[in-house]
Amino acid sequence: MSSFPHYRPRRLRRTAALRNLVRETHLAPSQLVLPVFVRDGKKLRRPVGSMPGVNQTSVDEMLRDAEAAAKAKVGGIILFGVPETKDATGSAAWDENGAVQMGVRALKKEIPELVVITDVCMCEYTDHGHCGVLKNGDVDNDATLELLSRAAISHARAGADIVAPSDMMDGRVQAIRSSLDGAGFSEVSILSYAAKYASAYYGPFREAAESTPKTGDRRGYQMDPGNAQEALREVLADIEEGADAVMVKPAGPYLDIVSRVKAETGYPVAAYQVSGEYAMICAAADRGWIEKERVMMESLLGIRRAGADFIVTYFATEAANKL
Ligand code: PBG
Ligand code: ZN
Questions:
Q1: Is the shortest distance between the CB of 117 and ligand 1 below 6 Å?
Q2: What per-residue confidence (pLDDT) applies to 207?
Q3: FRET partner for 153 with CA separation of 20 to 30 A, picked from 119, 125, 146, 237?
Q4: Annotation marks residue 42 as catalytic
Q5: How confident is the model at residue 138 (pLDDT cuts 50, 70, 90)?
Q6: Does the Cβ of 179 fall within 6 Å of ligand 1?
Q7: Residues in contact with 164: Cβ distance below 8 Å, sequence separation at least 6, in sequence order
Q8: Ligand 2 centroid distance, CA of 131 (Å)
Q9: Quick check: is 292 catalytic?
Q10: Residue of the nearest CA to atom 5 in ligand 1?
Q11: Is 12 within a domain?
Q12: What is residue 256's DSSP assignment?
């Protein structure tokens, strides 16, 4: 490499045209996935207090948001369900007429160009708010696998392109893969939330999904924020079990993990810019402390630069419209 005065990196920064020519990382609408919260009902749109612009919606209203996303060329949508009734096993999670299942059917019929992803987890559906069934106050890993498989099959039956387990039970990718295959859904993909950390950045989401655990926390199954090598083991285990793509979550505070997972696996990597990351940007912008649009774009570009192929973000439609 040459050095100053021959090397003058500013030469290629002089104009927008020059900068565009040598830009290494690009962000495209097709790389963004919009999360939505669906519940039963009609014409329902309930704002989520800690997430400006995000709402719980009934399926008809969700379709309006999905149309806006598709118009902006957003690549996909991920559905979370907010059920009317909860119980100890979260049985509403595999209700064929649940809001997620109805939502998937409606999306595949009305907006076939959007990739439809479903979040597979029990926490929105259990009365205790944990991501699996409880036994002696602890989440029972192996007993939960069967329930997750049921939910995943119901999503596949409704027409989901991708199911995305976010529960962090061990062995769930294998359980879901073999259940899907056994039910004739070998073409349905699995996007595993492989490196999902026990994060305080999920706070606003739990208001949106009404999924705060009644007792305790999720540290017994989600990852310890201090661990990076363990993230690689989690990811490799999920790939071995049949994950087609892997996710790192949250995104911004875990870019080292995104980078390593991409470099060391070469698999499609997703990163989830979670509710707290979104809420912080919105709140600071609201106070006039930062420029919302620029920080939004920079945060997404940074996640791409780290190695994410696609990003789950509440900014999906807004960012896609700017691109
Ligand atoms: C549920 C789930 C959570 C998120 C996605 N799926 C929350 C949690 O684990 O408590 C968080 C998403 C966000 O914060 O935007 N398993
Ligand atoms: Zn959960």
A1: no
A2: 87
A3: 237
A4: no
A5: very high
A6: no
A7: 78, 117, 118, 119, 120, 190, 191, 192, 193, 247
A8: 4
A9: no
A10: 166
A11: no
A12: H
